[in-house]
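Sharing a chain and its predicted structure for anyone who wants a worked example. Both blocks are below, sequence first, tokens second.
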Amino acid sequence: MYCDYRGGVKIFAGCAMSTEGGRVRTGALSGERRQVTALFYDIVGSTAWLHQLDPEEFGDMQRTLHNETTALIRKNDGYLEWLQGDGGCAFFGFPQPSEDAAECAVASALEIVERCEWLAQHFGSSLKIRVGVATGLVVVADASNTKLPRQTEVIGIAPALAARIQSEAAPNSVAVADATYRLTRGAFEFEEIGFRELKGFGEPVALWRPIARRQRTDRFSAYRRASAPLVGRDEELELCQRRWTRAIDGNGQLVFLHGDAGIGKSRLVTELRGDLAKQGVDTLVFQCQPRGNTEPLHPFLEPIRQAVAEAAKDDDPDRDAAIRFLRSLGSDVGELNAEIVAFLLTGKARGLSGETWQVDLSDEEIRERAVEAMLAVLTSSSASGPVFMVIEDLHWADTLTKALVAMLPGWIESKPVLAIATSREVIDPELLGDPNVLAMALSGLTAQATSELIERIWEMTPPDGLAAFVYDKSDGVPLFAEQLALLLRERANVSVQDRAGWEAPLREGRILNLQDLIAARLAGLGQLKRVAQIASVLGREFGRKLLVALLEPEPLPAPLDEVIETLIQAGILRRISTGATIRFRHVLIQEAAYDSLLKSERREIHGRIVRLIQSGSVSSLPDEIMAWHFEQAGQPLEAARHAIQAAEACSIRSAMHEADRLLDFAEKQLTQVRKSGDANDLLLRLLAVRGPVAAGQFGRGSQQARSIYERGVSLCAEREDEDRAKWFPLYWGWWFTAPDYETQRVRSDILVRDLKDSADPEVRLQSLHCAWATNEDAGLHSHCLKCVEDGLKLYDENRARFSRGRYGGHDAKVCALGERAFSLWFMGDDAGSSESIDAAKQWAEHINHLNSVLHALEFEIELNHYRNDYGGVIAVADRIGELALGAPGVLAKAALFRAWAHGLSGDPAGGLMEFEAGLARQQEIATPEGVPIYEGMRAQLFERAGQIDEALSILDNSIAASIRSGQVYWLAELLRQRALLRRARHEPEGAVALDLSRALEAATDQGAVALVSRVRLDLKRLGLRALPPDRHADRPSGT
């Protein structure tokens, strides 16, 4: 905290207090948060003046200066906080809020400098002064119940900053902070001083020097929207009505309304909604929430949740109640769609034994099915009549909601549906290609439309010039114009007929922008403001039951229903549906009410909310909302717990971006918690969720995924042995994302060793899952087959439904059968290999799991490569291309094999170019399995392209790397390839024979009968004999 001493006054971050006995007396404070501008001035060289002048003369000059500055400050509506010696401090916007506090402060500062120059001439001296001005958020605290000498305090950084920056001003000039400059640059001309390092401030501070006042001042820029009478929107309303006419003829339409906050998007929709209600058409309203973008499809789930609760007469309905309700919507919903939406409504990341549909699908399929199921539910009523649906505030939408909106035009093109989506953002052009889509940008009202609005709000003939005054202030933004007109109607004297009189209510409030205007209207509600403030802590939308419980300790001026009705009449709240749900009329109103609370009060109210929910007094809220409440209540551990639960739910629904945001939030919360068993468990749980999310976003071989698993296993190593099985998913990911084969092999050994005695059969199976892959890569084919045999005995189809997403994203049985196909082929059982790969594909199709289907095809394409079956490779690559749009690693692998087959079957140059590009991509996103195969293919392509030296260099490096890493299953083939290249270069027969002999030895040691046969055929064809093993040692390892 910044601290400075000036005489007997101590300033703590801008709060002046008495310091009796060196201690500040403390007590409970209450008050409000407000923006205030502080002015600090100081005489230049006052100590030198005391040496030059008699103290009495200096005192006269100093008093005169203080008197003049005090008069100037008061003239500009400033408040002189204190004078001390050669300087003083004043506030603008305190104690009374002021529309132009910053402007008044800068005007005062310039006038003080001008007056100082006049005084210098008067005294015949070189008197000079420096002035600093800064604007910032402060707490205006009520100190009446403390032992402090003042009844109020101003606590914040602005006074401290003003004190520091005045010393950076040149003599007889002013320096202002950046916030003040931004508020007043339309009123004054400035020159830039630059950034300065200030004592007590960690970062350099931008400073500006005001030169003079501009000719004209434009205080307000474009802000928000209106929702009283609709004016100036005839053309837009007519366009929407025309689209409705098309929709009811069975040509569904989507209309995007976009524009700044407050520009009138929702007001236009409300007008259309009222017109359609007269025709008997109900409106489905789906509201995107500021914090809802961490829950997939959140704007649709909440109203469906409420409808299910009403139908079931249960505030917390279960899955069966959800399915019954969804079935009741009609046959168009369908059984599977009902199950999917019920899962989205009620499913949690744990305890999902009854939910099986989603685990057999790829992430992309889950997202697509979820969106299609929701679309089926949303449009189900169109079978019995036209539907009007509104999706509000699309700029806050989650990724699945955006995907739903993108699919909406095609889904409703033959249905009687009009959908309108509102957004503050310009609509993505990719969404506008369909003929049944229209985008409309809303602009500000004209002066004539603003005048019409004022006439209708005023309820009598408004004074001349009032409409022009409101238009100038609001810049045509409807909500700003409406709120300003309402404020003037409530507070201005009816007899006031001029601009000065209309400015008065603005000067009484802190009216710098639309938020200030709304805050001023809230302040005019009296005791009702407290209800609005407390409700704002619940968010934009809340249930009446929770509000009742939250207000229980609060004294109310009237029964709650009367209070709510009054707030509705005042345009603060509105009822949704049957009235059980209440919403702030605009998010800006909710934010203004929330921001007016002290942080300590917010924290206390958030704490009340979580205690009510924990006690069971009211129904729980979604995990992501609970995480926010716990964070704001100062309970970071519980905030992290709920955020992780929400992230798990998102991950299961394949909403990876939303899960990632929640995990970022959770990790930030955990940094605020002391180390403990609970905190460590939560961190491991977070990492176990984050690993698959990172792998899905960046690729399983990405550094992001690797670092998460490495961190998790490092933490597990510090724990008791019995805890390790609990965190097996972290061990699995650690093995799966290893950066190279040698690391993966070592990790596999650790995995099997540490977990072989686990009581959980699935953990033992997944340990073997790691082992069979590693053994096959090491050329230990018999061991691989033994691991496969043992693993298949442990396999359980029901358990596998939930293990696929955790361990590699594919089914363990498919993987086992694929690895068995490899080892059987190497061991010479080609028929058994074909039978096993067919079984892998059939099982993958049986379980209907896309990632497992792709995994089986990965095995098949590599097996076709072993057999030099170019046509088979290309056919499988094409099949993968059809299926793997959401799996970049599989696509990259298939591209390599396709390039190899093309190159060797007729287009060497094109195949090589395609292969090199694909290899760079594959190395960027995938794990290192298959590297010896890829290097062998690459060498073959260089050879076909006539670049034999390059091919030999690749093989030299690859052979050495295989021996060094232990990934030797393809070593015999690499040695055989090099022998044939050496023969083509007419190298000595001994070098050729040596490579073939080493290949024969490696293949024989591995039991790789298929590779042994190839080497023997080459020896026979070339008329060479294999060298005895003792002759192999004449050459360096790997050559």
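Comments welcome. The longest helix spans residues 101-123.
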